[in-house]
Write a structure and sequence with these properties.
The protein has 335 residues and is α/β, with parallel strands linked by helices. It has two domains: 193 residues, HUPs (Rossmann fold, 3-Layer(aba) Sandwich), CATH 3.40.50.620; 122 residues, TPP-binding domain (Rossmann fold). The chain is built from eight helices and 17 strands.
Amino acid sequence: MNISEYQDIFVYVEQREGTIQSVSLELLSKAKELADTKKQSVIAFIPGYDLNDTHAVECFHHGADKVYICNDPLLKDYMTEPYTAVCTSILNQLKPESVLIGATTIGRDLAPRISARLGTGLTADCTSLDICSETGNLLMTRPAFGGNILATIICPLHRPQMSTVRPGVMKKIIVEAPHNTENIIYIPASLTQDHKNIEILETVKEKKQKKNINEAKILVSAGRGIGKKENITHIERLADTLGGLVSGSRAVVDAGWLEHSQQVGQTGQTVRPEVYFACGISGAIQHIAGMEEAEFIVAINKNPTAPIFEVADVGIIGDVNQIIPALIEEIKAGK
């Protein structure tokens, strides 16, 4: 493989019912940062149906230099084979150096199939991306051995270098970008009914959940140190007082005190709230990896040597079940 033929960074832009998913915008922002390092371009690719220039403009405002749009009735609903076929086709045509895909349910299904057809590697669930100053290779960092270490993986002999990244890991930025129609390219899918190896009979949507924790500005997170499930009420009261959401560590989720959708950490969600309260959380590396990018961290723990205090902006030492009620009263008084 002549790797010198491969240039630029390609981002698969995931859309559902015409709405671009936030993780794709996060990846475009990160791709822009990486591309500027190598003086390359960011290429966005949006497959779907009934997509238009508005979708492209949204990509431009988050870092894309060029947007390819592929409309086809077979791409209206996600199906593995048609999406794999169109993505593989355009990647063979464009020959990008790197490919970034969101680690969503769709992305985790799509990415390994594309990488297998392209004969290249894939690093899944990355938490960090960088460019090696010496070789120019993409440095793809992800948890390994149950999250006990972080492994940085490279793909030096094959192209494109492929990575999936969890939602919430990268920071979404807004850039000033003119609406340049020359950089919006509509391409045919060239799909036939032979690509449709399944039939979607019905789409059943789950009941709409409350706001996702990775969208919250304030999170109050519970750890094993709260003692028992009934003490979650203290966490909920503090979250309600502050206008935030409740989240937790893996320990409380495994114990059944909170839902998995509320879990913060490497095996849960990565969050970037403005304020993060860590209540009774010791600060295992797996949890810290999911919340250390919060703007302001308040830790409450009775163990003064708990690792969580190393990343906290404010540390309160004491029994969380006594401190939180007092804290709530102080906040109410302050209001």
